[in-house]
Structure formats: C-alpha cells, structure tokens
Write a structure and sequence with these properties.
Elements lengths: L2 H19 L4 H9 L19 E2 L5 E2 L2 H10 L7 E5 L5 H9 L2 E6 L2 H13 L5 E5 L12 E10 L4 H5 L1 E11 L6 E9 L2 E10 L13
Parallel strand pairs: 3-4, 3-6, 4-5, 6-7
Antiparallel strand pairs: 1-2, 7-8, 8-9
Helix pairs in contact: 2-4
Length: 216
Amino acid sequence: MNVQETDREHLAAFLLAMRSQGGVEARLMEAVEAVPRRLFLPDIKGNVYTAESFPLPCGETIGSAELAWRCVMAMRIQPDSRILEIGTGSGYTTALLARMGARVTTLDRYKTLSKLAAQRMTTLGIENVTVLTEDGSLGWAEGGPYDRVIVHGVFEKLPKAFSDQMASHATLLCAIGPERGAQRLIRHEKAGSRFEEEVVGTVWWVPLKAGLAARL
C-alpha cells in the first residue's frame, strides 16, 4: 500500500473518530477531508493524523490534527467571518479556517514558514487567505476589526490590543496561563466592553515572541 492509500485510510479513521464525538458540523468534516494533512508534513513518516505534535522548520511545531479541528470548532466560524490567525506555522489550521470562513489573515514571524504556507494555499487553490511575515504579538490592526481571532500562544491575561481589534460579538481563542505547564484554552466572546469566557480545553503552548525572526 502506497502513502496516498495509507493516508486515505488514516483520514477515514480520523473522520470516523471526529463523528463519534458528536456536535461536529458537516462543514468542518468537509474541510478536514478537503485539506490533506500530508501536504503540511511532507517529511513525516507514518500516520500524520495521530494525537501528537510534529516538528516544523525554524524550531517550531505543529499540534495534532485533533487539536486543529477542535480549535476551529470552538471558534464557531460563519461563512462571512473575517478571521485573524497569529502563528501560521505549517498553514494546516489556516487552510481549515479558510474552508470555513470568508477571509483569513494569518501572520508568522518566520518568513520560511510564511513562504511555505503561502505555497500550500496556492497548491490547494485557496484564495481567501493573506499570509504575512509580521510580528503578531499585538495582533494586526490594519486588517481589523475581526469576527474571529485565534492566537497559537499563551498569555498571562488577554492583551488589550487584541480586544481592540475585535468586532462586536467577536470570538477570540487563545491559551491563558503560565509559560510552562498546562494552560487553559479559552474562548473569549466579546459583548460590548466586556468578555464572556469559556474554557474549551487544555494545551501546552508557548508565549508569542515579539519581532520578526532575524534569519529564518
């Protein structure tokens, strides 16, 4: 059995596991099926849908496929959602977001990762994504306000800069907690000048680094 056939089997099993969780909307299932994870992990051998993280260039990592779809599901994306993503990484979650929303602006401080992610969007024919090599530690006000924001990083508390870039009734997903150890993955729902918070999981993310990478 070749890699393509094996990947199809692993994807089928993964989709079955997703369906067994209940409450996963059909649009998200279709997005996961339409975005081949192998494209984002070309050098990884074996099952790319396992519940583990994988290394990326520039010393970064990509979380599990399950974490990706759970993050997307938690954001409750609508077809007209304007989305900001901080921490493009491989671009896998970016592609899922693009399949779900109207427009995605995604930032990464590493030009290597941004370039590879942009190439993958082109390969998949995804045109509703803008990939930027920028410092996203304080968001990206130029494209705001946003309906949905996801930050692949942890804060001690949510920076005001992000809340200022969110539209009314917008949703932001990020980790809150210590730099090391387990953190709460929290969905922040903006309601006027205040936030309603809901813990949707546990993650082990790292703080965002400010500035652009000097070399990579």
